[in-house]
Amino acid sequence: MHSRGRSSEALFRALTALVVGVLATLAALHLFIRPEAQPAPPLTDNLPAGQTDTPTFEVPETADPAPASITISFTLDRTAPVSEYLQDAGIDRDEARRWGFVFQSVAATRLLSRDHPLTLYKDPETGELRGLKYDIDLKTSVTVANLGNMVIKAATQPIEYYIKPVQMAFEVKEDFKRTAARHGVPSPIVESLLDAFSDRHALEQLKPGSGVKLIYQEKISRDGTYHLVGDVEAAQIRFGSRTLSAFAFRDEHGTAHLYDEHGHALGPQFLRFPLNFKYISSGFTFHRYHPLLHTYRPHVGVDLVAQYGTPVKAVADGRVEQAGWAGELGNAIRIEHQRGMVSIYGHLSRISPDVHPDAWVHMGQVIGWVGSTGLSTGPHLHFALEKEGNYVNPLTEKIGVNHQVSPRMRALFDNLRQRYEMALAKLPDFGGHFAPVAGREHEAHSNGYHLTLGRSRRHSRRASLRQTSDSTPSASGADEGAM
Fold first, then answer.
1. 3-state SS string for 159-224
2. Quick one: 39 exposed, middle or buried, by C-beta within 10 A (0-12, 13-18, 19+)?
3. pLDDT tens across 292-347, in order?
4. Distance between CA atoms of 142 and 377, rounded to whole angstroms?
5. Closest Cα partner for 341 from 389, 282, 293?
6. Of 138, 158, 178, which one is at a domain's C-terminal end?
7. Which residues on adjacent β-strands are paired with residue 144?
8. pLDDT at residue 125 in the model
9. Torsions phi, psi for 477 (to 5 deg)
10. Are 264 and 196 contacting, i.e. CB atoms less than 8 angstroms apart?
């Protein structure tokens, strides 16, 4: 009996050990064979098609943007240093001087001129100067900016303009100049028209009832500060049964002229004198006592006394033969014109950098400035003319230019003239009916011009009619073809 009990106890222990072993084995297996967690979907699943890079998430900055500057613009009432104006605007003296020094480094002057515009940009909270803008002239402005960390930088930049074609038509009611002024035609445009038609009909003598059609340019700065008068583009004058036309065109040298419908240049083609002078100190003679050499010798020109630095202009279109030192004439220029004519300009203080041998100059272009270089007793211009190699008297001889469109430019001129005629035909007729351009009436009415009345609509027939259009032809349109 005792033996049977020990046997049962051993069996129980064996079964217990077996159960414990099984449970331990199952627990161990559970640690190794438990299901793996499902991987998270890739971050690229929601990216746009074609993008595979993992996006970078940035925390946006929470700083508020700097408040807009206070802009103060005014026209200067006196010529004074820039630092003085800045101090008047509340800028510390030392800071104003520092800005003035930076300004002078690019403007080559510390002075701001009277009647020029100045704009200041200031911080609205601290009153600190952020920047300034000053127009040196009609072409160039200076900007000075505070870049932070005590850094101030200045730079020059060109003033940009866009061209607005102005078109108008009116009837002469009294005389031409008064009527043109009443319709707002700028004085330079009036003078250009008087010159252009002077050889065919004096516009001052136009009778009431005559009609005028006109296209001219107005140049406007991008910020609207400046409105400058440009050039005449096209014009037609109607009186009685006659119609006279003028069209702007640039020749092969890039010089703009007004031409008639046949391609002949209109108006004066040479200047009587190359500068505004006080008096003639010596005339043209073959027997003149020289004040420095104390001997009699020819004086083959005229001496025009003028203030030192007075601009000297080319008397006509031409090619520069010589520009530089010429012995007794000092700094001198020789320009070759049509028909064997040569003009000579001596004793200049300076010669324009655009004037050099083989350069082309146009009538009225500034080529130099009055001086007293060479064999001279004082500031004046020695002006002389040669005709086929012989000196002639400038007071009695005319250059005799006969400028017209060259044969190789004729097709381009005709194309531009036709476009001008189409634009003019679109304008209303005053003072009778203008002769229509044959075969182009429909084109003229389909080129997109829009009329706006210069006065109220109830005065439309007597108002000056103006219009602007980007598609208006201009002489500058010939530039691309001429180059």
1. CCEEEEEEEEEEECCCCHHHHHHHCCCCHHHHHHHHHHCCCCCCHHHCCCCCEEEEEEEEEEECCC
2. exposed
3. 555 666 778 999 999 999 999 999 999 999 999 998 899 999 999 988 899 999 99
4. 41
5. 389
6. 158
7. 132, 154
8. 86
9. -65, -20
10. no
Contacts of 99 (CB under 8 A, 6+ apart): 82, 83, 86, 91, 129, 132, 144, 152
What is the rounded distance in angstroms from the CA atom of residue 32 to the CA atom of residue 199?
A: 113
SS3 252: coil
Q: Which of 65, 64, 42 is nearest to 52 (CA)?
A: 42
Are residues 351 and 301 part of one domain?
A: yes
CA angle (8 as vertex; 3, 10 as ends), nearest 5:
95
Domain count, the chain: 3
Is residue 298 assigned to a domain?
yes
- Whether residue 453 sits in one domain with residue 436: yes
Residue for token pair 């078109």: 167
What's the gap between Cα 391 and its chain centre?
41
For 118-161, what is each residue's pLDDT tens digit?
Answer: 999 998 888 889 999 999 999 999 999 998 888 899 999 999 99
Residue 104 CB contacts under 8 Å (≥ 6 apart), including other chains: 82, 110
**Residue 80 pLDDT level (bands cut at 50, 70, 90):** very high
10 Å CB burial of residue 174 (0-12, 13-18, 19+) is exposed
Amino acid, single-letter form, for residue 321: E
Query: What residues contact residue 333 under an 8 Å CB cut-off, 6+ apart?
Result: 320, 322, 323, 344, 345, 348, 351, 355, 367, 368
Please indicate, yes or no, if residue 402 is contained in any of the structural domains: no
Which amino acid appears at position 67 of this protein? Answer: P
Q: What CATH number is attached to the domain comprising 448?
A: 3.10.450.350
Q: Which of 229, 207, 209, 205 is nearest to 217 (CA)?
A: 229
Q: Which domain holds residue 311?
A: 279-392
Token pair 């009647």: residue: 115
130-137 long-range Cβ contacts below 8 angstroms, 24+ apart: 130/69, 131/69, 132/82, 132/86, 132/99, 132/103, 134/82, 134/103, 134/107, 135/159, 135/225, 136/107
**169 assigned to some structural domain:** yes
Strands 70-75 and 117-122: antiparallel
Q: Which residues of 262-277 are buried (b: 16+ CB within 10 A; e: fewer)?
A: ebebbbebbeebbbeb
**Rounded CA separation 56/47 (Å):** 12
Residue 394 CA to residue 299 CA, distance in Å, equals 12
Cα–Cα separations (whole angstroms), residue 187 to 230, 347, 353, 399: 11, 35, 31, 28
- The alpha carbon of residue 397 and the mean position of all alpha carbons in its chain are separated, in whole angstroms, by 38
| Model pLDDT, residue 8 | 59
**Does residue 59 form part of some domain?**
no
Residue among 282, 313, 250 at smallest CA distance from 475? 250
Q: What CATH number is given to the structural domain containing 307?
A: 2.70.70.10
Share of the chain above pLDDT 70, in %: 72
